[in-house]
Design a protein that fits this description.
about 35% strand, alpha+beta, disordered N terminus, single chain
Length: about 160
Amino acid sequence: MAFVERIMAPPGPSEGITPSTLVERVQYAALCYRAQRGKLQILMITSRDTGRWIIPKGWPMDGRSPAECAAQEAWEEAGVQGHAAEEPEGAYSYAKALGPRTAVPCMVEVYPLRVERLAGQFPEKGQRRRKWFSPQKAALKVAEPDLAHLLASFVPPAAGA
């Protein structure tokens, strides 16, 4: 059965799918950026499982706004310190694998985060790679079409916005 068909299939005990895995979940992501020699760059990281290029993202956290969650994920996954916009730039969806035969559909809200500093030591150092890309190259590195569009068309928010 194709991956997308698996996540949309009716629950079945042998599939490891329950009704709760069919409910779309929300995650928050940080679109980490900087200007280097007058050119916009976007920081990408690798996923821990497949090594594909992604942006930092994670689940909601009690007591934190979505922008704060995105900033926390950027710190944990990439060592980013900076300022996240309070409003999302956009959103994209993907299927989050929870195991070899289970996935959950996720909608990811993307918050621009101006990078002020990259730490040498951070919680997931050694588990991921990080690299700066132009917006166009970053868009070519991701698997999700809506994320690719967000990256390719990204214009940083005005200072103080």
